[in-house]
Structure formats: structure tokens, C-alpha cells
Amino acid sequence: MAAEMAQVDAVIHRRLASEVALINQISHYIVSAGGKRIRPLLVLLFARALDFDGPERFEMAATVEFIHTATLLHDDVVDESDLRRGRKTANAIFGNAASVLVGDFLYSRAFQMMVSVNRLRVLDVLADATNVIAEGEVLQLLNMHDPDISIEAYLRVIRYKTAKLFEASARTGAVLAGVSAPLEDSCASYGRCLGTAFQLIDDLLDYEGATAQLGKNVGDDLREGKPTMPLLLAMQHGSSTQRDLIRHAIEHGEVERLPEIIEIVRSTGALEATRQAARDEANKARAHLSSLPSSQFKEALLYLCAQSVERSS
Fold it and tell me: Which GO biological process entries does UniProt record here (predicted)?
């Protein structure tokens, strides 16, 4: 898909253009950092798997990347992050105010692009996704520093904040292809399950990965007081002493004893249990592809299921 992704990059750079120099500077800084670009890839793969090859697919793939980039700009301000994709975050360089406002610019530009393809269903899907993502951000904020949230509440945040845009990206490819409602729903379900698996692994890697591989600081989730699945499971299966240590760290956002907490997460089996939960979601995603015709694009979607779970960055 390299040639198709190059077309998406061309749309991204063209659509980033603004007469305001600071918007250009910050937008290009964060977009040029790269990233996995899975969301735009899903738009392209589902469109091609369903025999749609119109140029609108490039515009919509760029649109979902703009929505994602806007959430990153806002996320890094809320989380007070200073490292993403191995580089200083935009807010660390340009300040919080500029990052928030450029994030708003990217959101509004994304909506201009949605309208440009003249498909009301596309606008409906992506507008709904943008709203749900915002709800997920607020839900996560409410859960910060709370060690008593349930696994279900944690998964709800994932489905709103991360999986929803995966779902919308897959659905958008299907909408462009004009498929039946049941097939469109299957594509969306694939995206939702894949996005859930992807975020579970992201949360796992905060306790298993290395800063150089991750492109962000190990332990950032704990510093921000995020009660993710590895911590919640470690508290369920650990001793009272281990549970108290993790509770205190979540409540206060402490990383001074991070090595001890990483060892607890490993020794209690919380890391492997989290990875297994991700595998289960990836298997669900794989099952949702059964109604797609055989093609190299379907094979790529199947490959993404495995790759999202077994990655180390």
C-alpha cells in the first residue's frame, strides 16, 4: 500500500496549508513525525477490498488522520506529555495554547474535507466518531487517579477514545464502496475490535517496552494516574502489599517505584493476561472479515490483526 499511502500524504500536505505561519509550522511538525498511520490505511484497505478505487478514498484517509492528529495535540496538553514518537511534543515546543488551537484547526479542516466528497453518510459516520472520541477523553479524565474503576469502565474508555476512530475508518471505506448495511457493520466491527486490541497493547507496553522503542517515556500512564488493565489486573491478583503500592502510585501519579511496579505487573501475570485480552479482540476482528471476498487487501487486514498484538512498539 506504499503508493496509495504516498497519495494520502500528498493530500495531507496540501490540506495542511494555511496563511497562518504558526499553523503550518505546528501541523507539519506533528504530521511529519510519522506514526503507524493505521487509521488511514484502514480506509484504503476496506475501500479496495470492496472494489472501490475512486480518489475520494485518499481524501477520507487524510481526514481520519487529521482527526487523529487533532486528538494527539489535545491529549498531550491534557496529559502534560513531553515526548511522542521519539520527539518533543508540540506543546513542549510551542506551548499549550498554540497546540490546542492548531488541534481545533485540524478538526475544522477535517470537517471541510468530509463535506468535500458530498456523501452525507460519510459525514454522519465521522461526525459521530469525533463526538464519541471527545466523550472518551472526558471519561478518561474522570477515571484519572482512581484505582477502583472496573475493567468494564476502563474498556469503555478504550472503545470511545481509541477504537471508535478505527471503527469509523473501516466503516468509511465500506461506505465509499456502497456496500449493504450488514457488510458495512461487519467492517466497522472489525475496526472496533482491532482498535481495542491496539490500545490494550499500547497500555501493556507502558510496563513492558523501552522508551527508545515506544517513542514515549515508559511509565507515562502511571505518572498521569491512568488505571490501565495491567495495573487493574495486578491489583486483583497481587498481595495486599502489592495492591497498596499500586493504589498509592495511581492515586498520586508516582513513578519513583516504577521498577517495583513493573515487577509486580509481570509476576502477577497481568501483562500476559492483558496481551491475551488483546489477542481475543484481534480474533474477533479476524472473524468479522469472513464476508469479505478474497483479495490481497483482505490478507493485509488479516495480517494487521496479528501485527497489532505481537508488536513491541
Answer: isoprenoid biosynthetic process
